[in-house]
Amino acid sequence: xxxxxxxxADKLSAAPPKAWVAALVFGSNGGLVRERADRLxxxxxxxxxxxxxxxxxxxxxxxxxxxxxxxxxxxxxxFGGRRVVRVRDATDGLADLFEGFLSDPIGDGFVVxxxxxxxxxxxxRKLFEAAKAAGAIECYDDKPEDAARLIRETLSGAGWExxxxxxxxxxxxxxxxxxLLRSEIxxxxxxxxxxxxxAKLTRGEAxxxxxxxxxxxxxxxxxxxxxxDLKKLDRLMVKAAESNVSWTGAVGAALRMxxxxxxxxxxxxxxxxxRSSYYEQRMQAQLSGWDHARLVRAMCVLAEAEAQTRxxxxxxxxxxxxxxxxxxxxxxxx
Length: 334
Prior knowledge:
Layout lengths: L1 E2 L2 H9 L7 E5 L3 H13 L11 E5 H6 L2 H8 L9 E7 L4 H9 L6 E6 L7 H8 L3 E5 L5 H14 L3 E2 L1 H11 L3 H15 L7 E2 L1 H8 L7 H10 L2 H13 L4 H20 L10 H11 L4 H20 L4 H17 L2
Parallel strand pairs: 1-6, 2-5, 2-6, 3-4, 4-5, 7-8
């Protein structure tokens, strides 16, 4: 069964059809994949730490030992209750194994499979989309209208109603990632507390309570690096990771800022540089603590990191975060 509607996907993740013996959750939004897979699993076993009813397998385990799938799905819990078998990082290489399982399910275990982005020609995706006893749930970035629906439902559950402009603000600010969205809504409802009859959340209250928890601008990261503010940088990098920011872009923004600072310094930082007095004052303030040697070192580190994020197979986040931190520490070592 193919599930594409965001509202339907959320509904079926919380309460999958009894006829389903398995579900494939896939897509480019990793946070949403994990959330829906968690909800599917918890619909059968509320306590994921219950080792007697939950088996957690990596795809590599099934490649080495395909019989493990049937063994875990058919196992009987010591204290009763239906079991859940979770399979992580599945690929098309496991399509034949799952096809055999779906054609002749073993036991009453519920199998929840997580995968990354799968094309329409993917054998694994096509298998689950065509299956009658299984579902294929797509997970892509929430649209503002999807975020608005989730926000409205969560606030309503806590007894609150949001004014139209407050809802629009929250949906726009928090639609970059499901994990961020859930986290911020939970904090929002906790802070608001029990609602009195007729209570409504205004846009002003939403802005005050959520603040800058939404998407991180890469220029904010660059500013923190130039300022040498390690605490601010760390906070922004955590938020950036939740917002799926381009780490190559973040490093590039910091590099360009240092290049501008270097050009400004070489020109003497005077009015002849061609910018407003406000801009010149800002550049002068940013140059504080950055001598020629530090500027050159910063540009070298950032240029190398930018190239590595584009050309190597290493995770760009790790490369970028290390480089940004190293450069910020150059100023912190004054």
